[in-house]
Write a structure and sequence with these properties.
alpha/beta, Rossmann fold, 10 strands, 49% helix
Length: 332
Amino acid sequence: MCKIGIPRGMFFYDYYPFWKEFFEGLGIETVVSPKTNKEVLNAGIFSCVDEACLPVKIFHGHVEKLRDNVDYIFIPRIMSIERMEYCCPKVLGLPDMVKYSVKNVPQIIDTRINLRKSNIGYKKSVYETGKYLEKDLWEIRSSYTKAKKSYERYIYLLNKGVVPIEAIKMYNKAFKDINYSSSSHELTIMILGHPYVVYDEYLNMNLISKLMKNNVKIITPEMISKEEINKYSSKLPKRMFWTHGKRIVGSAFSLIEKRKIDGIIYLSSFGCGMDSILIDLVERKAISNGMPFTLLTLDEQTGEAGINTRIEAFIDMMKWRNKDENNISAFR
């Protein structure tokens, strides 16, 4: 059986449920690289160019792990996923970076996804991928329909408040078998950032798990509906042309104005040009609404002890604020 490798990096948590179901519907085995660890990181640092951001280096490490175990590696060239909007340039060039950086890499399926002019382009890209694998039109159409339904279930889970890390494990179960958490939480914190930073447990040092152990409810941009994101991102003076940037800003503005969260933790990869603008926009909005905000910048040298201290201090500050809100220091 033909094997296609899917690296567990970059937009993995955005589209993995769809592509897994699509390929398996065509009778092709999908192989996912292991979770990020020290070995994956080191392999990526060794093979990738120095100037790349950490998530791109980690992606190269995942490709290295798949290299000798698959016939193809699936790295779509994602140019645009919304009309009149674009993705990060590093995502656009990712197939070429891997091709010329990773030695003896298998054949790369670099499906071009460009929805800048029309959403029809996505279906066209899927069909082209199926034809590339020498499948007939009926097989492709049938597999596409099933994959689309699976992806809709995945999005449904996100909108119900399930964190993507867990939703990926649950999307193919019957809804009656899924238990949504209804337990009360002491705090509600929004974790902002690009999905390949927010959901990579090694890169962010298990931030989500640590917060949950402290009885904190987690909300991420992917859990906010597209309608809400579009509504609140439109309040910016100028239109946001980065899809993931719009998602971050729109979701944050929505929850800040509705007072649905107690604070925001922004996870940023060192050297991310997009984040240099997004962080400022969100922080200004948070400050103007009296919302606690903290930034955690991550790179190869970031130590877990320092991150833990920052998280503990941030949680303690919010608990103190909720308990003694009227007892405000005279400072400022």
